Amino acid sequence: MKMDRARELEKEMLTCTFCGFCKSVCPYFEDNQWDPSVARGKVILAYGLARNEIEPDDSVVKRMYQCTTCKDCERRCPSNIRVIDIVQATRADLVKAGHVIPAHAKIVENIENTGNPYGETKDVDFGVHPKEANVGYFIGCTARYRNTSIAQHSISILKKLRIDFTLIDEVCCGSTLHRIGQPQNDFVRLMKENVKAAQDRGVKKLLFTCAGCLHTFKEEYAKHLDCSFEVEHMVQFLARQNLKLRPLPRKITYHDPCHIGRHMKIYEEPRALLKKIPEAEFVEMRQSQESSRCCGGGGGVRSADPDASRRMASKRLDSASEVADVLVTSCPFCVNTLEFGNETVEADIEILDITELIDGLLVTSCIGDDAP
Ligand code: SF4
Ligand code: SF4
Asked: Ligand 2, closest atom to CA 29?
């Protein structure tokens, strides 16, 4: 089997000292206590595959997909190994050789046929007609087709703030394809469609509520295309606004989505926003900000290994319900995965996206001070 992409990282794989620091943070290892599921195990497998010393049998392929790309091992790794690059490069080589997990094959087919991983063919009308505007809102597939309340509340916030904005004719951002090792050409095709859709509307700033979409635009799109617009998460945008919020006398904690947390270091803005809520008590979970635990949904894990994903989400809910009665996050896919985890544990906690919470408290007469 040709392992071109993985071979490029072979030297880096050799710098793993097997110290095991990654074991202390990996949500997958915490779930199954199985060494091949943690970073060093995957580095060993990737090295074996790159050198053609081991066969890509089903068990090896399965392990290479046991990674949510949460990046916590990279934070702890004394050798600064780019674990996610190694995992994704190895996945890309495996896919090229025909090793595709059935659940991922379905996602790829859905994106190809419908432009979204859920295979939804009906368009959802959010009551905003596309037009020329400086500000665009990229809804993302999960808020468009699953947790639609997040899109509705985000649109409501922008309207209350009297921001002149537009939706764009978006397709899937391509994050999932990229993470599960699908061919780069397919990913670039989606990127081009989205960039054109934003540019066609004259957008200068594109806002996101999905952590994965924003991270993909910020890091990957810029590598391949010339984006003539800024990208920003809604929490960054809202943190600068002069918001008038109604009181909420409840205990609130915040789950940092890996893709805007460890990957983009957006920690302060959501907290600043939550601390503006009168009478609310903001409390941190044991694992928060840079040491936040993954919800268990990323990196293609939710579809490939839903049972593990659910258990990881349940653990996060346990941590949250120890300290608060409202768990807020800023990513529809995290919300969706946490709700999925809650189907079994039924934690005594309300799970909300930050846009849902803020819109519910936002006094309508307030005027934004950051309209570009
Ligand atoms: S922390 Fe880094 S060097 Fe240590 S075992 Fe894990 S991947 Fe290897
Ligand atoms: S990125 Fe996260 S899930 Fe993947 S090996 Fe590292 S700690 Fe584990």
From this structure: 8
